[in-house]
Amino acid sequence: MIPQDPTENPIAQSDAVTPEPRRSAARTIARNTIFGLGAQFALKVASFIFQVLVIRQLGGEEFGQYSIVTAWVGLFSVIGDLGVNQYLAREIARNPNRIKDLFWNTVLIRLVLALVALIVTAVAAYVYGYNTEIIVATIIFTSSYFFQALLAPINSVLTGNERLDLTSILSVITQVLFMVFAGLFLSLGLNFTWLAVASTLNMPIVLVIAYRMVKKHNFPPPKFHITPATWISLIRLGLPFAFMQLALSFSFRVDTIILSGQVSDLEVGWYNVAYGLIFNILSIVTSFSTAILPTLAREHAIDPDSVKPWYYNSTRIMIFLGLPTAAGITVLAFKLVGFLYQPEIAPAAIPLMILIWDIPFSMYQAFCGNLTQSMKLEVDAARIFGSLGVLNLALNLILIPPLGILGSSFATVITDCTGSIQYYILLRRKLGSGIRFKSVLRIIAAVVLMSAILYLAYDLHLLILIALGGLSYLVIVWFSGAFTSEERGQLLRITRRLIPVRTT
After folding, report:
1. For 394, which of 86, 172, 304, 504 is 20 to 30 Å away at the CA?
2. Can you spell out the DSSP letters for 177-241?
């Protein structure tokens, strides 16, 4: 049993919030989301272009091997953290004074876990039967965990203090440095293993920048202080977050691992080309989900009912954005893949047409996962993610042997659809109803009409089709009654602020 008295256990969970002037939740979330979206958009555009170049340089088969390495490392990455960083960020958001007890204990725990993760990941790859190049790349990747032992807690401090703008900057720097090093190695004709080198080589540079950043913005690490006797308690408190992370790793990675034993490396490459496109879209959208976590944790501690409108409105926005994205890319999948990649990659359009429907479900799950953490429902979320991990594993084992990459695509969508249903039931029980399903039905009708327009105009250039689809969807939704007059007025006011009108 976890002690409940903080004087008996400094790691014990505390609801106490240090009195301070109350910050505006809307303003803080907006700032973090704007910085997150801006940084992620710029970063993902650059990363997307870079990934296209990597695939063209490596070819489908070698890109498949690189995808196996990243999937294998991701599958075991939970060992290097065990949820202690997420717990650290949540506790700092609820009570900034907790940093004194938690920061250096988290760093030392992560250093120990980094060594364990490296050994387990490499040995497991050898036992599974991967070749030497994949095992070496795996070891290089996991060596970055030693730098992450300090870098990740620094990020948690910034997250807990609601400075997602600064974590976004660090994310951009990390990716830019990776692309610089990786681009250099690829230009020299080196193989995929050197992409692993590039992902580790940037860590010490980012760590120095991060440390200077937190000191400059008055979030310096506290005086060195550790209490090893509390480490077991800290790990135990982080386990619900670890289970969620493990389930997510299964959802994102286990399909590639199973595919690697069933199909060729080229087919693994096709699948991960499609999956990479989905992941790039999701990583942009989920910056909002990340932005809400520390702020709503604070708001929920003060006024639990304050999170309700954020849930209702955010869910409708995700439906508004996710459904047309899925439908549009389904219609244009072959044009999109043919526009971006060489003919060898063309079959990736088929799994893309299936996987793209994971977008609305994954958006909703990412949001709900962070919302439940804010509401201290991480145990319920861990149960959901745990069940999804088991379901995803079972579906992949059943569907991949007869269907190959199509089976793994269906498994992904079915799993996340199931997760969305579970989260909806949980949050409806906790927050009540308020999503307005009549509005959702009107959005669905607009998506169907937009898809028909794209299908009829299919012979046009891809970029023209994208513009046509977006414009037609917005017009149809605007006049469909999906938004109330008040919501349309808010959208107009936001638009006027973003696009100043000159008067003569």
Report:
1. 86
2. HHHHHHHHHHHTT--THHHHHHHHHTHHHHHHHHHHHHHHTT-PPPSP---GGGHHHHHHHHHHH
**Other residues' Cβ atoms within 10 Å of the Cβ of residue 504:** 2
Type and span of the H or E element at 341? none
Tell me the CA end-to-end span of the chain in Å, nearest whole number: 71
Query: Alpha-carbon distance 155 to 211, whole Å?
Result: 10
- Model-level pTM greater than 0.90? no
Contact 65, 192 (CB under 8 A): yes
Rounded to 5 degrees, what angle do the CA atoms 17, 23, 27 make?
140
244 and 134 housed in the same domain: yes
- C-alpha distances in angstroms, 476 versus 160, 272, 379, 452? 41, 34, 41, 13
Count Cβ neighbours within 10 Å for each residue of 111-134 and write b for 16 or more, e otherwise: eebbeebbeebbeebeeeebeeeb
Residues 342 and 314 in one domain: yes
Instruction: Please check whether residues 369 and 382 belong to one and the same domain.
Output: yes
For 235-281, what is each residue's pLDDT tens digit? 888 887 787 777 666 666 788 889 988 888 889 989 988 988 887 77
75 contact partners, CB below 8 Å, separation of at least 6: 249, 250, 253, 254, 257
Question: Is position 504 within any domain?
Answer: no
Q: Which residue range is the domain that position 451 belongs to?
A: 437-497
Nearest to 483 by CA among 428, 432, 440, 434: 440
Q: Hey, how many other C-beta atoms are within 10 angstroms of the C-beta on 440?
A: 16
How far is residue 340's CA from residue 482's CA, in Å, rounded to a whole number? 34
The candidate with the shortest Cα–Cα distance to 290, out of 203, 410, 396, 165, is 165
Q: Which residues of 416-438 are buried (b: 16+ CB within 10 A; e: fewer)?
A: bebbbebbeebbeebbeeeeeee
Do 345 and 486 fall within a single domain? no
Considering the domain boundaries, does residue 12 fall inside one?
Answer: no
* 463 plus 412 within the same structural domain: no
pLDDT at 445: 93
Question: Taking a C-beta distance cutoff of 8 angstroms, is the pair 181, 243 a contact?
Answer: no
- Tell me phi and psi for residue 59, to 5 degrees: 90, 165
In a domain, 24, yes or no: no
Helix, strand, coil tally for the chain in percent (to 5): 85, 0, 15
Q: Are 11 and 237 in contact (CB under 8 A)?
A: yes
